[in-house]
Design brief:
alpha+beta; 7 helices; eight-stranded antiparallel β-sheet; about 25% strand; about 325 residues
Length: about 325
């Protein structure tokens, strides 16, 4: 109808119409996409120089804190949540169903407690007592210390394929972070050991520790990555460990990597800052659970990643 025309002829005539409303929603980037966006412009707190160009946080204390394992995700705080650290975004991770995705890897900021890698003295992660504890009692919420608190946390963790490759090297020139990255994804294991394991919770790799350094004024990052992790306790390379947020001077930490020449050793990060394999797996060491988050998870607008204001996940 033309509003400017005479409408007398339309008296007593019925009209009907249909109105369609198209709602445009603002796109919400995933957690992995947010980190990737930050890394594009921030070369101080990020690096992408491992063999697969994964995005990693680096430095003594980058803004990579995130609240996780919260009793109340609608009210995230130091009293309701644990602080975890974001290791980075890892590309083309294989999930339990065989599909691949870029996933955010996180690690508990502090040790759960001091626990044996395997109380039976066998360096096979697929059957290790620590593995069954982390993916059993700890995951299910029945572990005595710091267990996962609820299904919201449990459902945020992706079940993925973890590489279990190891090496017999530790003190030779073949123990750089880049070498470790290859060993972990290789097939060198003690006779009969599996090279992969599928599950939700494990440990950091030696390469995670190595690539987390930013170096310093005396020894820069490039020089640190050219130094064997076995020798990171040297006084001349203290910048390497001291500018690495995964370093803990208070305790030795277990890693996931087994020693391939014997049946009972695994690699750890010692409190002086170097990686070594002389720990029998039945020794108790610090355990910092590590996990990959589901790709659908995003961040709220609260938090800047600092220790005082960790990122907050949209869960539930």
């Amino acid at each position: 109808l033309d509003k400017d025309e005479n409408q007398d002829d339309n008296q007593n005539v019925s009209f009907s119409t249909k109105v369609s409303i198209n709602e445009t929603k603002e796109y919400v980037p995933t957690f992995a996409e947010r980190i990737a966006d930050l890394a594009e412009t921030d070369i101080t707190n990020f690096a992408t120089d491992d063999p697969d160009n994964n995005i990693r946080y680096i430095g003594a204390n980058p803004n990579n804190y995130v609240y996780f394992n919260c009793s109340d995700y609608s009210n995230q705080s130091d009293s309701t949540c644990e602080k975890w650290r974001i290791i980075g975004v890892f590309k083309n991770m294989t999930k339990e169903d065989g599909s691949k995705a870029n996933l955010v890897k996180i690690i508990r900021d502090d040790s759960l407690e001091s626990i044996a890698w395997d109380s039976n003295g066998v360096n096979d992660w697929s059957t290790a007592t620590l593995q069954t504890t982390l993916n059993g009692e700890y995951y299910n919420g029945t572990y005595a210390t710091g267990a996962l608190k609820n299904d919201l946390t449990r459902n945020a963790i992706e079940s993925v394929v973890w590489n279990l490759g190891g090496t017999a090297y530790e003190s030779s020139r073949n123990a750089l972070a880049s070498h470790w990255y290859g060993y972990e994804r290789g097939t060198t294991v003690y006779s009969g050991r599996p090279t992969t394991w599928t599950g939700r919770i494990a440990l950091m790799y030696p390469s995670d520790y190595g690539y987390a350094t930013a170096g310093g004024t005396t020894t820069n990052r490039e020089s640190c990555l050219a130094k064997e992790l076995y020798n990171w306790d040297g006084s001349g390379v203290s910048d390497c460990k001291n500018n690495d947020y995964l370093f803990k001077s208070a305790y030795t930490q277990w890693t996931l990597a087994p020693y391939s020449s014997t049946s009972d050793l695994a690699f750890d990060v010692r409190s002086p800052g170097y990686v070594r394999s002389s720990s029998n797996v039945n020794y108790a060491r610090g355990v910092r659970p590590a996990a990959y988050l589901k790709s659908s998870i995003s961040l709220s607008s609260v938090g800047d990643g600092s220790s005082n204001s960790p990122y907050q996940l949209k869960i539930g």
